[in-house]
Amino acid sequence: MTLHVYNTQTKKRESFRPLRDKKVNMYVCGPTVYNYIHIGNARVFVFFDVVRRYLEYKGYEVTYVQNFTDVDDRLIETAQQEGTTVKELAERYIRAYFEDMDALGVKRADVHPKATEHIGEMVEGIRILLEKGYAYERDGDVYYRALKKEDYGKLSHQTLEELKAGARVEVNEKKESPLDFALWKKSKPGEISWDSPWGKGRPGWHIECSAMSKKYLGDTLDIHAGGMDLCFPHHENEIAQSEAWTGKPFARYWLHNGYIKMGNEKMSKSLGNIVRVVELREKYEPRALRYFLLSAHYRNPVSFSFETIHQIERGLERFDTAVTNLHHRMKTAEAGNAEPTVNKRLSELTREFEAAMDDDLNTANAISVLYDAVRFANETVARSVVPRGTLAAILGWLRQFGGEILGLVVDGEEESLEAEIEALIEERQQARAARDFKRADAIRDRLAERGIILEDTPQGVRWRRK
């Protein structure tokens, strides 16, 4: 089956075909590291983590780059307020970002470039844009001449008047047009700065991603992705400056995820209605947050609520129970290969999963297929006779599609109980055999006090932690 994705630039659903047959260059805009990320930010990183995993499952060699913006006005202002340096502030929140992402099961990118470590590449790009007439210098500042690029606005599909109205710019007499944007900013006294042919300063926001993506992935990307809020002006400006710089198309496929809503409003720092991932991790299992972020089609908005996360936590228990039951049953199952009927059903589930993901990366439908697989696992485990190969095949399917791709299924062998608890379980079994149910119940209560829940099944006693 062929993967189809919705391309923001063409506003069409297109077959995915990278520049090079089985190699994919993928760039996802990372965070500006002046604070902890909120659950709305996390949607970008969790969803495109799944995209990367799915592309790898389909046999592509993916080079994945995600940057850190570690210098901008907000970093400078926050560092001044806290009496620290921009570098120290950025490093603190980069560490916090990785802690959040590790908890959410997001794999590290192949490269995590920092803006401050690529000033030379940005200066070179700006120099070329000046030479080509796409940029101009005014008193130490350098601006991109937006209207020189005839197709400016092709990503956001807006007229020049709409672009001007939507441009988040202050009145600036240095600019030839309100749509022009800063490539280089002259530094103010006491601000962090770097030397350049135009004097001391620092790069504008948009030039960072153009320079870093070019360095690590080349002139033309297969996939450029991020939140819908980046479509304009950030990604629009990236296209303009990158294509003027190289003379080549900047990205073949533009993918943008929708907003997280709090009530009826978009979640954003400016509105003050954010919920930070670090705080949510203290209350909920991180897998529940990951599940929530994948539970709707990525281009659709999704409403956040604490009750939703709580319900998802309970739903995840179904995945965990299915995996635990499979491991438990395998201990007593007879030897034998997977049954043909089971292999057939797993093949059907694979086709259904791929159909969901190939249809513009529909993780919501893929999760529905995962639930079908869990139901099939439970029905199989309940049978009186099941060969070990059948159980292993189902477990392998859940591990691959629910775990390796979606990151929602954890396949861990049952934990080893301490010797004392094992002895108590054995003692309870002996008491039950002797019909000493009072003693058996007392042992069950004692284990419950220690957070161990016993479940009597036809295949023997199974335990789990509260």
From TrEMBL:
EC number: 6.1.1.16
Cofactor descriptive note: Binds 1 zinc ion per subunit.
Highest taxon of source: Bacteria
Required co-factors: Zn(2+)
Motif 'KMSKS' region: where in chain: 266-270
InterPro entries for this protein: Cys-tRNA-ligase (IPR015803), Cys-tRNA-synt_Ia_DALR (IPR015273), Cys-tRNA/MSH_ligase (IPR024909), CysS_C (IPR056411), Rossmann-like_a/b/a_fold (IPR014729), tRNA-synt_1_cat_dom (IPR032678), tRNAsynth_Ia_anticodon-bd (IPR009080)
SUPFAM superfamilies membership: Anticodon-binding domain of a subclass of class I aminoacyl-tRNA synthetases, Nucleotidylyl transferase
Domain Cysteinyl-tRNA synthetase class Ia DALR: 352-417
Keyword hit for Protein biosynthesis: yes
Chain positions recorded as Zn(2+) binding sites: 29, 209, 234, 238
Signal peptide: none
Entry keyword Metal-binding: yes
Subcellular location: Cytoplasm
Binding site for ATP: 269
Keywords noted in UniProt: Aminoacyl-tRNA synthetase, ATP-binding, Coiled coil, Cytoplasm, Ligase, Metal-binding, Nucleotide-binding, Protein biosynthesis, Zinc
GO cellular component, one term: cytosol
Top-rank EC class of the record's enzyme: ligase
Any one GO molecular function term: zinc ion binding
One Pfam family hit: DALR_2
Listed GO biological process terms: cysteinyl-tRNA aminoacylation
Subunit and partners: Monomer.
Cited PANTHER family: CYSTEINE--TRNA LIGASE, CYTOPLASMIC, CYSTEINYL-TRNA SYNTHETASE
Family recorded in the similarity comment: Belongs to the class-I aminoacyl-tRNA synthetase family.
Name of the protein this chain belongs to: Cysteine--tRNA ligase
